Automatic annotation (TrEMBL), chain A:
GO terms for molecular function: transmembrane transporter activity. It is a multi-pass membrane protein. It comes from Diplocloster agilis. The chain crosses the membrane at residues 9-30, 50-69, 76-104, 110-138, 159-180, 209-229, 250-278. GO terms for cellular component: plasma membrane. It comes from the Bacteria. Keywords: Cell inner membrane, Cell membrane, Membrane, Transmembrane, Transmembrane helix, Transport. This is Autoinducer 2 import system permease protein LsrD. It is found in: Cell membrane. Its main location: membrane. The lineage of its organism: Bacteria, Bacillati, Bacillota, Clostridia, Lachnospirales.
TrEMBL record, chain B:
Its main location: membrane. This is ABC transporter permease. The keyword Disulfide bond does not apply. It comes from Diplocloster agilis. It is a multi-pass membrane protein.
Automatic annotation (TrEMBL), chain C:
PROSITE patterns: ABC_TRANSPORTER_1 (PS00211), ABC_TRANSPORTER_2 (PS50893). Signal peptide: none annotated. InterPro entries: AAA+_ATPase, ABC_carbohydrate_import_ATPase, ABC_transporter-like_ATP-bd, ABC_transporter-like_CS, P-loop_NTPase. This is Sugar ABC transporter ATP-binding protein. Its main location: membrane. Keywords: ATP-binding, Cell membrane, Membrane, Nucleotide-binding, Repeat, Sugar transport, Translocase, Transport. GO terms for molecular function: ATP binding; ATP hydrolysis activity. It comes from Diplocloster agilis. Residues 7-241, 252-496 form the ABC transporter domain. It is a peripheral membrane protein. Pfam families: ABC_tran. It is found in: Cell membrane. It comes from the Bacteria.
Amino acid sequence: MEKIKKFRFSLNGIVLTAAFLGIVLIGTVVNENFLTMKNILSIFQQMSEMGIMALGLTIVIITGGNDLASGTTMGLCAVVSGLCLTSGMPIPLALLISLAAAVACGCLNASLVALIGIPPMIATLGTQMFFYGAALVLSKGNSISNIPREFYFLGQDKLAGLPLQAVILILLTIVLAVILKKKVFGKHLFAIGNNIKASAYSGIRTVKVLFLAYITCSVLCCIAGNIQVSRVATARADMGYSFLMPCISAVVLGGTSIDGGIGGVGGTVVGVLIFAMISNIMNLAGISSFWQQLATGSILVLVVVFNKITENSKLHLKKMAGKKAASE
Amino acid sequence: MKKLLERRETSVFLILVALCIGLTIYSPTFLSYTNIKNVLVSNTAMGIMAAGMTFVLITAGIDVSVASQMMFSATWLALLAETPLGNPVTIVLAALLIGLVTGAVNGALISKFDIHPIIITLGTNSIYRGIILVFTNGRWLMNLPKWFTGFSSTVFGIPLPVVYALLIFLISAYILKHTYFGRSIYAMGGNREAARYAGVNLKKTVFLTYTYTGVLCGAAGLVLDSILGNCQPSGSNGWEMNVIAAAVIGGTNILGGYGTIGGTVIGVLMMGVIENGLVVAHVPTYWQKLVYGLIIIVTVTIDVLRKKKADSRKQMIEID
Amino acid sequence: MSEHVFLEMSDVSMTFPGVKALDQVRLDIREGEVHALMGENGAGKSTLIKIISGVQQPDPGARILMDGEEVQFPNVHASIKHGINAIHQDLSLFPNLTVAENIYLGRSKNGKVDWKECDRIAVEALKRLEVQMDIHELLGNLSVAKQQLVAIARAISLSSRLLIMDEPTAALSFSEVRMLYEIIRKLKKENIAILFISHKLDEVFEVSDRVTVLKDGKYVGCKDIGELNESTLVQMMVGRSVTYEALNQESYAAEKVLEVRNISKEGNFKDISFTLHKGEILAFTGLVGAGRSETVKALFGLNPPDQGEILIHGQKAELKNVTQAMKHKIAFIPEDRHHEGLILNMSMEDNITLSILNQMLGKSRFISSRKRAGISGEYVNTLNIRPGQIYKMAKNFSGGNQQKIAVAKWLVTKPDILIIDEPTHGVDIASKTEIHKLLKSLAKQGMAIIMVSSEWQEVFALSDRVIVMRHGRIVHEDSTRDGDQNLMMEKAILGEVKA
């Protein structure tokens, strides 16, 4: 009985593991520094911001939605936090206000999707532009520097030898993985992603769950934004703008279905790690970063197309089997 | 007459006129030849892409790779112009061909696999941009030949890019209104299943729609190069959102089924005039994004609510 | 009408994953005849007309003869070329296009649209129907009845030999129905054959020449209308081959569990009042579109009424959403298992425990796999769900077992009131009997059950009382033990009892 359940995840697991090992192998062959502790830690540091945002996207994509505004939510929260910090506010208060901005972003997205019923991609495409505009207006189109040194801890300190942001990523991953597997909220996310109508008919408060999902995503974007502000000691409206694509790619590469209902955060983190390793190897080998853009786009298209093909062939087989069974 | 007043284009057009009058009163230079020419010419590339976007949105699809497709074309054209093969004829052919290829790739992927067009075009967006950046290493391609910039010269006081754009608008409007393909686009956007029942080949229509949009993006690349006189492969980032905003402001329903080239042209002009007006009024241009984002959110909300209302009315039963 | 059969279909089968929608069906159409296609829900009528009109492809082996020559309808164009076009139930029109274009769409010369031709065809088609309409109005602005006329105009402009209509009168008022009959008679004179699906006996007897009846995807028979009367036709449709064990011999308690007083909702139902007792099975029956599902959904908070009140155990209850309904211990098993009842891509265990996840928490406040497996296993056994693999996805079970999963999903909430919409729709005979026995035993244990069913035998075999609905109202209420079956059927179908 257990076998059937496990098999479903294994196909994607095999592909993901193979990709992961393949890239580690390539990295090791191409550059002897790849597997050094120092380099691994730097990969962790590089992937954390994107990883945290991708975790949030995973949650939303599992519900059958998407948050194309996640990148600009990150920028907006970064700007809000930057403004608060430079105005001399205490750090906790600044973070709190930044989080409040994130919650507002999430609420707007969720209202459009869950209350009004706009297709998520369209709704968040609109808010993407709106949040970006808001961030530009707040920052007057400038980048905010003079971030107080006391704030640098978030993106530059280490905890037990690990970069602090990597620790945050690991903790968030564990928490979300547990929520998805073991909490009612997690089960409801999957149910909604599979069939929102049947979920509502089963007594799930779909609006509430969707609000929580979009708010979670925005809050995670906010955390990623603040880490980046701390790491580079500036805040800009376009921070995170370029994260959207690789994050979605990482989520689907990690085995979460772009149509919702299937997936998990573990795969997403591995997906982000793969992207981080690719860019790391390219940096080590001195290959232009432009290749990364090409690679992320290609991987996204290849993965969604591959998933569709396998899904369709399964469906076809099933139909054939159905015909056979019915004719007997 | 009554129908004309009911259309969203009409109200947008009236707002545009009011805006122009207001700007003229605020600053009479707004109506000067130079300023008008400037507003028109600087929006031609966007207008051409917006015409393609209108097609895509009517089918209930979306294409967020248009800016990349345009730069893909612009970059290869700039490179081609430097080679001995570069002459006005090959450049025009190449522009259309390159656009055809990028558009056809989008069209093939979207029509073959049942995947949301945003996802596919987000992917190809990175791919097209990545290819040209890798190839040029991000280098600006400066000093395009004279014959190339000649594409955007002014003849009898009329800037040629505006003529190209007008020509493309006319062709696009003709296709939408008077061809089977054009009507199929409206049909599938209005009721996809019914379109299938009426014998519309959905896959073919989708493929052709994205391909046509690609061709227009290719043409936009040519126009952009000739206006600027150089090509920045990493440029025009984020233009796709402005293009979508222009179509939506012009009355195209982002959920499909409704839109006109005329409306889109008004939308493009509106955005051009707003941008120009902000400069004239010394308002920082970054307010634009906020306003456009808000416009998209509000119009889509109205469209969705209206559709919901119509659907619920349809489900009612008759009670004696 | 001539005796010449121009369209002959045989061995038409159609398989969807796990379901045989049509099984060796045949059908023949004579020139200029009006042919009614009848059968209960799920009999395969809509599927059959989708095959004739080229929308769906039958399984290999089907034979279609047109004037004695073998033909195929691989797409809609092929059917149109043979002079066949269909109006589907949802009308398949375009709200964003004008009336004229809705009629014209699909035709073109060399890929171009001739707008003059478009207007001409539209005007001509509407003229044949003798209706006045602004052909440049957007279709979305018209009433449903007018849209229906546009759909008919479109179809007759495309069909030179056979016009197919799927429940054409469903959305029409009385006078519009008269008009449609006139149109049908006129087309008949033009030697155009008409095939129509209908649930209304009176209409079949009024206009049709012959009737073909399907049941559960199988061909039952084809008769001239002269050979039939209402009761013989009903018998063909419901088929006497299946009789259910009569289970309604027990009596129920006098305790009122649910009292509904004059609830109404615009466009859904009007002035609905009834009482449900402990241990009773109350059936709601009537035709599709009579407002039965809308009414029971109101009791589950899915379709809150505008007026009236609902009392549960004598207390006024507010039922504005599912959560409130569940608090009042009401459970609802919808008709559409695939889209509303179950989540097909999740396991049986996930489905069974979905509504009670809050009770599945262990000491650590995490969902306990052991509890989930335990309760799922328990219901697998009590309901005899086969195969009993709780981790298997719901979509991989047969229709009968899927329905049992849907029932289990709500039994785990230990409801006082169980509402079940078409309990045995698309379920094989053996499972049907099992589900019937299960419902009865639940009632015996004191559960109050509301059952919506279109199947008369089921209603009479299972329920204690029956409520007949028509056009959103209750038209009849009776005990099933001493009630007159035929009287009720006639009320449901005709709305009045013929003397």
